[in-house]
Design brief:
Elements (H helix, E strand, L loop, with lengths): L4 E3 L4 H6 L3 E3 L5 H6 L7 E4 L8 E2 L4 E4 L4 H6 L5 H8 L4 H6 L2 H5 L51 H7 L3 E6 L2 E6 H4 L18 E7 L8 E6 L10 E10 L2 E10 L6 E2 L1 H7 L6 H8 L15 H18 L4
Parallel strand pairs: 1-3, 2-3
Antiparallel strand pairs: 4-5, 5-8, 6-7, 6-8, 9-10, 10-11, 11-12
Helix pairs in contact: 4-7, 9-10, 10-11
């Protein structure tokens, strides 16, 4: 780890007034600093900035510094969000990691984390080692010739499915942005991962009220049952009336360069019977446009099966 200056602002105004890298729980930043992947000159410890709190009175509002564990345990949080958080990490990490920091965490691509290897996210223009290298864990949706790394956050998938927004602050004021629009596809600028502008800070996560989101879940497929990053995941909320799907929200993780909303699956579900056959037909559209790599073609059928499993879980209690 290289030397850096550390300061600790106590207000949002002070935090956004000073250029630097924000430190909250530190569960991602410190690791990357130890590897010399990130080498900030100035780190701002924002843990004393008043950005905590959970409000479920009309939709959901989380302060950006609220810990993942506290949100997961709150009784008013939609199940898809709570389950995504619980499956994200160990209890110790959930008690340290902030919701804002989780949404900004960097990819777990091994080439990104190895400073001896070319990586366009880390050194623009150096190349993408994963395209012809070890790419079993990598993306099949939203990739480009510059980057095929998957987005790492579990809860971001659930939040994108539920139309969450971020409130961002800088010295000029605040703005809200849809989380689904906040994340940027790699295209030819993979180092630009999101719409966070220089000097901006996430202050709140906002989820609109959706009464039927109480019928939601998050299914995560991974190589081991203990805490591991997703090979594939699905966040699903389902509104079923008289055996017919009235509405649906579906997003996928572990397969996209960003949390991947699936509007085609949602459209196929609306008006369809809540049956396994209809779910299979809808899930078949999830991989339209997929571009598998040499080692991750299995993610195409896996994504479809993961979505079906989540839908069945919400309609008959099955975990098939």
């Amino acid at each position: 780890m290289r030397p850096f200056e550390l300061t600790a602002p106590t207000t949002v105004e002070a935090a956004v007034a000073t250029p630097g890298t924000y430190l909250a729980g530190g569960t991602t930043l410190v690791d990357l600093m130890k590897l010399d992947v990130l080498t900030p000159d100035h780190v701002l410890d924002i843990n004393d900035v008043p950005l905590r709190g959970i409000d479920t009175s009309d939709g959901l509002r989380f302060g950006a510094l609220e810990r993942m564990g506290a949100i997961a345990a709150h009784p008013g949080v939609y199940p898809a969000i709570s389950r995504a958080l619980l499956l994200s990490a160990s209890q110790q990490l959930r008690n340290m990691a902030s919701i804002g920091g989780n949404l900004l965490q960097r990819t777990r691509c091994s080439y990104f984390r190895d400073v001896a290897m070319p990586c366009n996210k880390r050194v623009p223009g150096s190349g993408c080692s994963a395209i012809t290298g070890a790419n079993r864990m990598h993306a099949i949706l939203g990739t480009s010739e510059s980057c095929v790394a998957t987005h790492a956050s579990d809860v971001a998938v659930a939040l994108v499915a539920l139309d969450a927004r971020l409130r961002l602050a800088d010295a000029s004021g605040t703005r809200d942005v849809a989380l689904g629009d906040f994340y940027q596809l790699p295209e030819d600028t993979p180092a630009v991962e999101n719409d966070l502008r220089p000097g901006e800070l996430i202050t709140e996560v906002l989820v609109p009220r959706l009464d039927w989101a109480a019928n939601s879940t998050y299914v995560k497929v991974r190589d081991r049952q203990s805490y591991e990053f997703a090979l594939c995941s699905a966040a699903v909320a389902l509104d079923v009336r008289d055996g017919i799907v009235a509405d649906a929200r579906v997003a996928a993780g572990g397969v996209g360069t960003v949390p991947w909303r699936l509007p085609a699956v949602e459209a196929a579900l609306r008006g369809a019977p809540a049956t396994e056959a209809a779910f299979v037909a809808a899930a078949a559209t999830a991989t339209d446009g997929a571009q598998p790599l040499s080692e991750n073609g299995f993610k195409v059928p896996l994504l479809q099966r993961t979505i079906v499993r989540a839908l069945l879980e919400l309609t008959d209690g099955s975990s098939r």
